[in-house]
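Why predict the complex rather than its parts? Because the way molecules touch one another can change local conformation, and only a joint prediction can capture that. The input here totals 1177 residues.
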Amino acid sequence: MSLRLELIGIGKQYPAVKANDDISLRVKAGEIHAVLGENGAGKSTLMKIIYGAVKPDEGQMRWNGQPVQVASPAAARALGISMVYQHFSLFDTLTVAQNVWLGLDKGLALPAVTARITQVAAGYGLDVQPERPVHTLSVGERQRVEIVRALLTEPKLLILDEPTSVLTPQAVDKLFTVLRRLAAEGTSILYISHKLDEIRALCHHCTVLRGGKVTGEVDPTQESNASLSRLMIGAEPPQLTHAARAAGPVVLQVQGLTLAPTDPFGVALDGVALEVRAGEIVGMAGVSGNGQQELLAALSGEDPRAPAGSIRLFGQDIARQSPRRRRREGLHFVPEERLGRGAVPTMSLAENTLLTRTAGVGAFGWLRTRTVEALAARVIARFQVKAGGAGAAARSLSGGNLQKFIVGREIDAAPRLLIVAQPTWGVDVGAAALIRGELLALRDAGCAILVISEELDELFEISDRLLVIAKGRVSPALPVAEATVERIGTWMSGLWPGAAATEGGTHAAA
Amino acid sequence: MLRLEPRAAPSQAMTVASPLIALALTALVAVVIFAGLGTDPLAGLQVIFIEPLSTRRQISEVLLKATPLIVIALGLAVCYRANVWNIGAEGQFLLGCLGGGAVALWLTTQGIVLPKAVGVPLVLLGGMLGGMLWAALVALLRDRFNANEILVSLMLVYVAQQVANALVFGPWKDPQGFNMPQSALFHSSLLLPPLLERTRLHVGFLLALVLAVVATLFLFRSFRGFQLQVGGLAPAAARYAGFSARASLWTALLVSGGLAGLAGAMEVAGPIRQVTPYLSTGLGFTAIIVCFVGRLHPLGIVGAGVLLSLMLIGGELAQSRLGLPNAMASVLQGLLLLILLACDTFIHQRLRLTRSRARPA
Amino acid sequence: MNETALLINTALASGTTLALAALGLLINERAGVLNLGAEGMMLVAAVAGFATALLTGSDTLGFVAAAAAGAALAAVFGLLVIFLNTNQYATGLALSLFGYGFSAFVGVSMVGKSLSPRQQYAMPVLSDLPFVGPAFFSHHAMVYVAMALTAAVAWFFYRTRAGLLLRAIGENPEPAHALGYPVRLIRLAAVCAGGALCGLAGAYVSLVTAPLWVEGLTAGRGWIALALTVFATWRPARALLGAYLFGGVTVLQLSLQAEGVQISSHLLTMLPYVATIVVLAVISRNAAFIRLNMPASLGRPFRPGS
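Output of the joint prediction:
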């Protein structure tokens, strides 16, 4: 029984929180080991420690039985530890080959690297073209580049951080095939995730983290979702009541929305058409990078260039209206980015209400501080936001609490149409449940809601109808009862009935 | 190992202490320079920092020089908080001198004598318009052509200096001035009323204080001011909110141009009383330092304006009394800003001593 | 001397300062750091170079001292903005203001002094060739150094892995940090190299173009160099060309005055600055084009571990 990696008593303290507290981990050679935990449980910090990007305050690490100090990512790579990141590790403006080249320590010339990439990719059945600039790649393709880059270092331990959040269900299966093959060849794999089904399908062993501590070390194939959930959050996954409801009149109508991107690396929208009715939640699935950002900017008014008549609210053409005008008509919007877009980080929660709520603005633009503070306090109370009062700076809140505040601020405005992007990304399970519950309540009260999310489970849970965005086009809508994960997964590759077969097919959606 | 860690919340203590620490360190450097130049350090510090506050007359001079610094810096604070980097205040100030001077010269040469309550505001208005025009050029180039406002505003300073020279050596030269490059003296009805007898201090100083209060209300209690600040702190949030970036750009530049122009008019309608080739003394650049030392806050700017005026006058005194080069004051000012920026980092960050290796279990 | 040859000669000679400074700023900006302190660095370097040449009688030592002074100031700037994360605009401005005052202060005793008489710069044999001789081969050594450095930097950027890494860091430092590269040290190195080049540019003015010292000698060339990097869309060869074009504008100024054309001398003095504004307007107009070419992380602070 050879332990490839062993962590004993690892601890790491940050100013506000103890991210890792007396953590032990045991990974054998050739084992696929899951690290399960909800957002904020300390998984990322632990991986950064293993990978050498962060130094632990306490504890010891052993590699193949020998104690080691991993002082830097380069040292980790030298040991044979390789990491496949979730974000932020490829240079957009360089080609695949150039990116991989910069990621290698050996003194190879570029042509040699290119040849190796082709060789390794072919060997594992991964489709990667070395000459493509990275910004032309979809998120799934970028992940393949990351994996090939990791494989080129011939790793003994491969760490994958939430790898499937950017993949269609079919692509997930392909990934699992590659991982099982690697494990069979003797590579150990650390698989970080909060997706219970995947862990039970793929992994041999699982360490569960909660609040920075280990709450269990189990064999996931012997566990159920419920038991894993109990270890992960201390309770069963919260149930939401989603009663069927007849939808009301059409609130949002989008037709013929064709828009060239402002960003040279953006996605063009091509004849987008969709409808959202009062009292229903329409869920939009899609892998990141398929036009969601561009569509949202057009709907919110941040991009005022939509063709006239392409966006109608209660029949009125709002395509060229500013965000403030749209809010006056009842359209509210929760953006994907919280700090920096949904809220100004250094301003207080009270001040941040002024971004989208005008109750505090008096005659001649005089700001009514008491009104603004009261509004913030109301949102904080109703949405259980843990913060140091209405005067707390937005950036002092945790991700989940800030998201509760932002969603709360928009729901509190009693909108007639609410558009929400990635409502629970990076948010802990409790806050996520509250947010989803509030969205359902808002829908029951008659609001029309459009939710764009990369989490299929979430969309299936709260939507009445589903549609998919791929390559700047939007599919027809499907009632949730008729939708299956496989079917939506296929659609996410752009293959829905009636999709024009104009694209050459060289650029996959995922 | 020393690491810099972000703080959970900005340190109140450091926000107040930072300028004081920076000032102390600058004084320390001054002492070193004095010693190096063979001057008694204590005498040097005394001349620069204490002497200008010793007599009633001296204090009035400090406040007099502080007036344009404060007014210009107030405008710059609005600009910088909106993330519009106007560094051509010197040029806008000059155009203010020219604008105010144009009105004053016209009235003087036409022999029109107006009551003070009308004439003086007209001159000041002329200055404001001149400064606004110059700043509008910057706004236009950024709005229409996406041209960087830092470089454009600065280039316009050099252009403004030549425009002023062309006028003063040319059409505005006083026919009775013995061919000296200067304009005619303005009629006394157009000069700012004095504030303190037997000194040169005029009501401009009071106006500066009033403007500081107005600026505070604008920035922190008005919606337009709020929009400007959001645009500066988080442009994506401003877009999300629907705040017009274009409106903020023009507001910021017109306000700062107008205020710089007002300061210029106050100079020519004050102690100087005419247009000369020597109007551009770097007040526009010193005002940038005043703005930062004052934490981009109108009330802090009043204090910082007085402080930097003190240093400028102290520098002049040091030159005449101790034979120190006049440039000394501008070295100390530049140094003050650099040290202040370094000290300011500790408002949001904190030094920590950390162990670089994990303890073996 | 042939008119055109003279024109080219003067354009090259007076453009060299801008070429060196723009090249230095380009290296900075390609790494993602915007240094508004160019003018201040150039002034301090100019006075340092002048003082050294005055003391030692050697131009070469003067240039070396200037490069060192530029690099030292740049290092201070780099430590502040890269390691302490101070605001890049404010710190650069502060550096310029400080440099202005400091150079005036240090140079007070040297105003009006002159260096040993300058000899005619001519390369043996080559300068006797018709047309190309006077145009290209009758310059101070620094002119050729500027051209050689431009070529070297271009080669570094586009043909070496280190240059690729530098450019990549300027686009986005996060991936580089994730891969374990010392992003901040690399940026500091770029800033210091840029400072040294700005130093050479400053000394060129006080040792060759002028050659003398007065307060504010460089007359805004540091700022014009900043504009040049935009004009050159951050490419070394284009920066060199742009610098010579600007040198040509200065020539225009001088030759118009020499011809006795009836334009106010004030208008002529304005010419380079107005030209800069026009150039900036024209080149920046296409925002998408600029965004495509500009190093994406320019001016933004980098906080590792955030």
